């Protein structure tokens, strides 16, 4: 899917992740968009602040309760989830590798509860989308990270954006396709097994209605000062 606003339509499904800063992929592996599928990431901890959002088909992500103790730091993904294309319930995905495998062909190969071992649409959801967690919706059909490489997502301390970068086999961190290209040129042995199109720096969309109230208040104050 493409990044956009979360759709409330029951006719779409998502896949998502859970991070310490709570992030999830979007419908169709995308941001909150009125599309057929999505992925997301979120944090394991929750806000414990507001009532759940009703009739919302998206991926959840939550912010650590003690976020205020380290405002300058960023949070990374801690959980992954996907939304069933039939019952629209959220199912947790065990690993980033499995999550990316689902995401890479989500549009052409929709995900259903039956694809998870010993699970059916009759079972309760593994997790609910509500604002007790901060959610980040991811785009669908993004390339799976090549073996030996690692993709990282971190949520900025002010929850303004989720940044993506890759850790190369050498330990080098790259944040742009230009840097990937330079790395492959300097390391021919990797350039022979992976290509530039295997990397994508598209960032998931942080769902504003799930951002902690403390962060929302700080953001509003900042805007007032600027004006």
TrEMBL record:
Keywords: DNA-binding, Metal-binding, Nucleus, Transcription, Transcription regulation, Zinc, Zinc-finger
Domain CW-type, residue spans: 74-129
One MF annotation (Gene Ontology) recorded for this entry: zinc ion binding
Residue ranges annotated for the MBD domain, each copy included: 135-206
UniProt keyword GTP-binding, yes or no: no
UniProt entry tagged with the keyword Zinc-finger: yes
Position of the signal peptide: none
Region (Disordered): 44-70
Coiled coil: none
UniProt-listed PROSITE patterns: MBD, ZF_CW
Biased composition (Basic and acidic residues): 46-57
GO CC annotations on file: nucleus
Name of this protein: MBD domain-containing protein
Primary localization class, coarse: nucleus
Compartments reported by the entry: Nucleus
């Amino acid at each position: 899917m493409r990044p956009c606003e979360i759709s409330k339509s029951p006719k779409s499904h998502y896949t998502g992740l859970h991070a310490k800063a709570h992030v999830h992929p979007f419908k169709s592996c995308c941001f909150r968009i009125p599309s057929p599928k999505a992925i997301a990431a979120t944090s394991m901890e929750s806000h414990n602040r507001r009532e759940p959002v009703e009739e919302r088909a998206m991926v959840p992500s939550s912010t650590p309760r003690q976020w205020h103790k380290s405002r300058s730091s960023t949070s990374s993904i801690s959980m992954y989830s996907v939304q069933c294309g039939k019952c629209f319930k959220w199912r947790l995905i065990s690993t980033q590798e499995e999550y990316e495998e689902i995401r890479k062909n989500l549009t052409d190969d929709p995900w259903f509860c039956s694809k998870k071992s010993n699970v059916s649409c009759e079972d309760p959801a593994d997790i609910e989308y509500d604002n007790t967690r901060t959610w980040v919706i991811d785009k669908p059909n993004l390339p799976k990270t090549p073996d030996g490489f690692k993709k990282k997502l971190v949520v900025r301390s002010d929850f303004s954006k989720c940044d993506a970068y890759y850790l190369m086999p050498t330990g080098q961190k790259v944040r742009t396709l230009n840097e990937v290209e330079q790395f492959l040129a300097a390391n021919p042995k990797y350039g022979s097994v992976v290509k530039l199109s295997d990397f994508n720096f598209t960032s998931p969309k942080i769902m504003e209605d799930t951002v902690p109230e403390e962060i929302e208040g700080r953001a509003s104050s900042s805007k007032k000062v600027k004006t």
